[in-house]
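Why do we care about 3D structure at all? Because function follows from shape, and shape follows, mostly, from sequence. That is the central idea of this module. The next example makes it concrete: a single protein chain, its amino acid sequence, and then its structure expressed as tokens.
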Amino acid sequence: MDAGWEKDFTMAAKGCVARMRQIRRVRWRRTNGGGMGAAGLPVIALLALSLGAGGVAVAQAQPAVASDVHPGPVAPPARTTEPVTPASAHLRITEGQVGEVGPGGTIRYPSVTSCLTVTIRLQDGGKVGAHAGLFQVPGEYRSDQILAAVKQRIGARGVRAVEVRGAVGAWVPSYFTRAIESYAEGEQVPVPTGPDPKGLARAVADGLGEPRGKVTVEDLPDGDQTVD
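And the structure:
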């Protein structure tokens, strides 16, 4: 990695952390009726310090949500959008949700800033979509639960292709098997040191039980995504 690229990536990473801080502040205001709350601050501070120091994580981080879920979780009960089958359907999938449209339908993922979207194109022409967030939205799927939920939704149906899009540089592939919230106080949370599209493709393929060759990854952050 040359020095110029590393400098550019570090600046981009800091910008990503700033956006995450704003997102979490708004979410906590909506859910708690006040400020961001003490639980969310240490994790964001950890990421900010780690990325600013070239990816060296800082110990003594308090997870946003305590949990005993470790790699390989089963899809948990959570609110998800219901299947929509008409060909003309337009489905909006927000952060932490999984949904489906029939052949000819459109999926819209709003405000993809620090997130990744996973769109599964089925052999019958339908699509299953997931909006994976770095941090869990209350009542929705965590990053280490969402692929299991997608796999459950697909069932025995054939998969033609899997498209991963979003803030590739903000993600470590292991977030799909162990979410940031699952790290206890004093544990070291991994942080990205550079984009890893191949690693993300492997993690998604493994989580869905699909061949690696079906998965493509595209860096496409900072905005709404529409998949026809």
